[in-house]
Structures are given as structure tokens and as C-alpha cells.
Write a structure and sequence with these properties.
One of its GO terms (molecular function) is metallopeptidase activity. This protein is mainly α. It contains one helix and no strands.
Length: 23
């Protein structure tokens, strides 16, 4: 369960970072 949470956080962080970079 913890692994899934970590994975979700990683995806969210990557998406946010990419979005910020794109904009």
C-alpha cells in the first residue's frame, strides 16, 4: 500500500513539474 502511495506522489510531482516547465 505504501509503495502505491509513493508511486502516486511521484506521478503527481512529475506531472506538476512537467506542467510548470511546459508553461
Amino acid at each position: 500500500i505504501h509503495c502505491i502511495f509513493n508511486f502516486l506522489v511521484y506521478i503527481v510531482r512529475t506531472s506538476k513539474y512537467e506542467n510548470h516547465r511546459n508553461w
